[in-house]
Specification:
2 domains, two-stranded antiparallel ribbon, 15 strands, about 325 residues, single chain, alpha+beta, 9-stranded mixed beta sheet, about 20% helix
């Protein structure tokens, strides 16, 4: 069954976003603490008739709301899996001109590697240097004079110093994701559900007060996890054909009402609501992060501990598969 709300034996599991039923009994050694740090809030599901449909791939957004008491409230919102899913992986490269210094540095590095004695390598370098022709020497010497004169020398000799341009790696980019969902209400109950869904996304885009009675500091907005689920296998599992997403912040929520017609119900609830969501991962990933996520060893919270993102170098040990 797909995340029913009216059966206590099938409430969504806080550890895996799947229905907890007789097929998902927790072994004695893994039972949670009687006073858990995570608390589940009743999930919001659109459309409502998606409950019980285990044939439909779906997506679940979970906001990890950290309270000042240290408890993390987990708020889940379920939709059918959207179309036009886009994943952008990037690396930042630049071009660097090493010039004569780069060539010299490469030569010096060679003195301390490979076969042969250090003395023999130095002798060979001297022999190679003596082979520089007069024109080359003049061009090299021109690098010590003002730019205008250097250009004239290079023009006269018909040669320039080799810039020795190389591509250098800087960093990997932080991934961003966008989703769009169109919701139409069929009755008053669905109008309330749609209002609650878009309100929750908007609510958790904002920071909270850093203290109960003071706004001198601000608490970060909640961190989110986003998962693509298949509900046709033993209560639910992640879709292995779609890449996994690390913990994210919700960076923008754009809401449009009645985009196809200006229609309202008798209680003034709009007929349609379209939301566009933008998420940014909490940090740049490396290859190990991706491998660990794909092997399902990073855990269900994807780099979140106590409702806060985990920084580089502080990740918990990978979960060992049994």
């Amino acid at each position: 069954m797909f995340i029913p709300l009216d059966n206590q034996n099938q409430i969504l599991s806080g550890a895996g976003d799947v229905a907890r039923n007789e097929q998902f009994k927790i072994p004695e050694a893994q039972k949670p603490d009687p006073k858990p740090k995570n608390q589940n809030v009743a999930p919001l599901i659109y459309p409502p008739d998606m409950r019980g449909d285990n044939r439909r791939p779906c997506i679940v957004f979970c906001a990890h709301e950290r309270t000042l008491s240290g408890v993390t409230n987990q708020h889940r919102i379920w939709f059918p899996a959207p179309g036009s899913l886009a994943f952008g992986d990037s690396a930042d490269f630049a071009q660097t001109d090493l010039g004569i210094g780069g060539t010299a540095a490469a030569g010096l590095a060679g003195l301390f590697s490979g076969d042969g004695s250090f003395t023999d390598k130095v002798t060979q370098k001297v022999k190679n240097a003596s082979s520089i022709q007069g024109i080359q020497a003049a061009v090299i010497a021109s690098s010590a004079v003002p730019d205008g004169l250097q250009t004239a020398v290079n023009l006269g000799q018909g040669q320039v110093i080799n810039p020795n341009t190389n591509t250098t790696f800087n960093k990997n980019g932080v991934r961003q994701f966008g989703f769009k969902f169109h919701m139409s209400a069929r009755d008053e109950k669905e109008s309330v559900l749609i209002r609650d869904i878009q309100s929750k996304f908007r609510h958790f885009t904002y920071a909270d007060r850093g203290g109960p009675n003071s706004a001198i500091t601000l608490e970060y907005p909640p961190v989110w996890t986003i998962k693509f689920m298949n509900m046709n296998v033993g209560g639910g599992e992640e879709n292995k054909f779609i890449p996994r997403i690390y913990s994210c912040y919700c960076t923008s929520v754009n809401t449009t009402y009645n985009s196809t017609g200006n229609i309202y119900f008798s209680d003034n609830a709009p007929l349609e609501c379209e939301i566009e969501l933008q998420f940014t991962e909490t940090r740049a990933l490396n290859r190990k992060d991706l491998d660990t996520m794909e092997k399902a060893q990073l855990g269900d919270e994807r780099g979140i501990a106590g409702g806060r993102p985990i920084f580089h170098g502080s990740e918990p040990a990978p979960i060992t598969e049994k």
